[in-house]
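The data are passed on as follows:
___
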Amino acid sequence: HCDLREAYEGFEFSHASIMFNVLRDLPQVRKFVQVGVRDYCDAEAERAASDGRISMFDSRSLARAGFAGTTWAESCRRIVDELPEVVYISFDIDGLTIEHCPHTGTPVPGGITFEQVVYLMECVADSGRRIAGFDLVEVVPCPEDKIDAVVGARVLYKLCGLTLRTLSANKG
């Protein structure tokens, strides 16, 4: 989800408005790149299209590019080219395909795979950009089915390692 709504059900500080608020309230955020989003409203699509700070690589566009012969590596290069030198990664688990997070609060068909997202994050690190921080949201562990927790833990593990790698590579 884009999370670019001005308000959701009348609440300005909802989960569906967080990125709208970031862009409104944090002028130091000069670039905002979204990957794998789907299931967004017209107002969010219009905001993404009209705000020069936003680059959106939605799930459908990425899939269509792949169907037309664009490799994932090529798509990742396009995505990474949009990033600033210092990157903060806000990882919403429901950007992954549904089998990776079936219990998340708002599961939606489509998305990107775990391997695709790991490759993309490695491309970010390999590009010389510095990952300054990250968060992981919407992981909903289920006692009967551990997949959400396992995938969330692996994403965190990868984010920690790649962040440390970019910090040590950018010393000196």
Remarks:
- The helical segments are 18-25, 42-50, 59-67, 72-81, 114-126, 147-169.
